[in-house]
Specification:
single chain; 17 helices; mainly alpha; globular
């Protein structure tokens, strides 16, 4: 990638953030529309889970493929293709006549979305080469997630109340078109110096692992043990297959050597836990505010602003802290805030009081605002720039997998507790309580792993891993072999 002026780099960052906005906005907008969608399409709790998880699941399964493909054939080309497919999927979702087709069209959206976030992060990584400048850019990137949290429920509430839930997919079309035209004009093409070969076996194993695991979790409350166990067995077999097959490939879909770096491994697990907390939190909050409190979509969206505003404020601050002091402090703040917020709901029924409900939302917004920048920065820092797309894709995959599992697990817990009864206050609070404890565990893991994987010994493992990867790249480029 050629050297760009400071102004041009900021423009590239803005274009990449537009793609993140529509991809992340889509989930927060859809969350506030769930009750309306449930009534119109006669969806069960598991049906609602699938409208969210079909999207995040496909994203998680294809992100690494998209990242490596972009490194191979050109990041700008893949990025523009993703914008076109995502826009087409959004249009199809707005026309879906049934729940089943909506789920299918959400998967089309996700195919396009998988070509956006990891590729955009790879573009940012190769555009902002100075570590501090890159950390600040990633902080801005994280703030866009907060903007989507703030704008999604509010914009979604307005659209659902005034036009209907189908209109929430229309807002993606002008943003995707604008991003497409700006990318064509201002984003330079870039690719890895040496193309990596596709790994179809690894890709199939990843799809089998994520798909079977998610299906087993979501369908467990309604299906018999005999119907769920085969999918759990497929997930386990796919995991073992990945562990056996990928290290034997010269150019695997996911390079397991990355995980020898303690910060990288920690960032991966932290991403799963942090975004599992986000997925579960939004799912429970939306159903409570609308189905239990009886709020309309607009007022439910307004209630979520105390969670979104701190995220917008804290994400850039987190990026600056990562750039100046490292990831430890942001991760500790994030872990503490998410844990305390979830404890308020799990142990003290924060939903029952406006004051505690607001406090719980504010604390969660602070925690989520601080967690995003250290995840991304740790994932790409120290890795060879030629593999930036793959490293960024692993981080993005961890986020989407976490959100998928959060909705699946918390939704399954809620469905088991509620059963066929209506969402009364008492039944919902009782059924949701185990789900809140799951989120407490997620926050606690963020806190512990943030402390453990940001120490000196962890940084030494990161440097050793980066040196081995760099040496391997040099040897492979010279034709010697890894």
């Amino acid at each position: 990638m050629p050297d760009l002026s400071h102004r041009r780099r900021l423009l590239v960052l803005a274009i990449c953030c537009m793609s993140l906005l529509i991809v992340s906005l889509d989930n927060t907008v859809l969350n506030v529309a769930l009750p309306s969608l449930q009534r119109d399409l006669h969806a069960s709790t598991s049906g609602l889970q699938w409208t969210i998880d079909a999207y995040t699941l496909v994203l998680a399964a294809l992100l690494m493929l998209s990242g490596s493909t972009a490194d191979r054939i050109g990041r700008k080309r893949v990025f523009m293709t993703g914008l076109v497919v995502f826009g087409l999927g959004s249009l199809l979702c707005s026309l879906a006549p049934s729940l089943e087709l909506l789920v299918v069209f959400r998967m089309v959206q996700a195919v396009g979305g998988s070509m956006l976030n990891p590729v955009a992060m790879s573009i940012i990584t190769n555009t902002f080469t100075d570590p501090r400048e890159r950390a600040r850019a990633i902080g801005v990137w994280g703030a866009v997630v907060g903007i989507s949290m703030a704008a999604g429920p509010l914009v979604g509430g307005v659209l659902v109340e005034s036009v209907g839930w189908r209109s929430i997919f229309w807002i993606n079309l002008p943003v995707a078109l604008a991003a497409l035209l700006l990318t064509l004009r201002f984003v330079p093409e870039s690719r890895a110096p040496r193309a990596r070969r596709p790994d179809p076996v690894g890709q199939v194993l990843v799809i089998a692992l994520f798909g079977a695991l998610t299906y087993a979790i979501i369908e467990a409350p309604d299906a018999s043990l005999g119907a769920v166990l085969p999918f759990a067995a497929v997930a386990l077999a796919a995991l073992l297959g990945l562990a056996w097959y990928e290290p034997r490939r010269a150019e695997p879909l996911i390079d397991l050597r990355f995980f020898r770096s303690a910060p990288f491994s920690g960032a991966t697990v932290i991403a799963v836990c942090g975004f599992a907390a986000l997925g579960g939190f939004l799912f429970l909050s939306t159903l409570y505010l609308q189905n239990v409190r009886g709020l309309d979509a607009l007022h439910a969206g307004l209630w979520m602003l105390p969670m979104a505003a701190p995220t917008i404020l804290c994400a850039p601050l987190s990026g600056r802290l990562v750039g100046s002091r490292g990831p430890r402090l942001p991760l500790l703040v994030a872990g503490c805030a998410i844990t305390v917020s979830a404890v308020l709901f799990a142990a003290f029924e924060a939903e029952t009081s406006n004051a505690t409900l607001t406090l719980g939302y504010v604390l969660f917004g602070i925690g989520f605002g601080f967690v995003n920048a250290p995840i991304t920065n740790t994932a790409v820092s120290g890795m060879p720039r030629a593999q930036a797309g793959v490293a960024a894709a692993v981080a993005s995959t961890s986020r989407q997998l976490g959100q998928t599992l959060g909705v699946a697990v918390v939704g399954a817990v809620l469905a088991s507790g509620v059963g066929s009864s209506s969402y009364t206050k008492d039944t919902f609070l009782a059924a949701a309580r185990p789900g809140w404890w799951v989120l407490v565990a997620c926050g606690a893991l963020v806190l512990v792993l943030g402390a453990v994987t940001s120490g000196r010994w962890a940084r030494r493992t990161a440097q050793a891993t980066a040196d081995r990867l760099q040496e391997s790249e040099v040897r492979e480029a010279a034709g010697i072999g890894a």
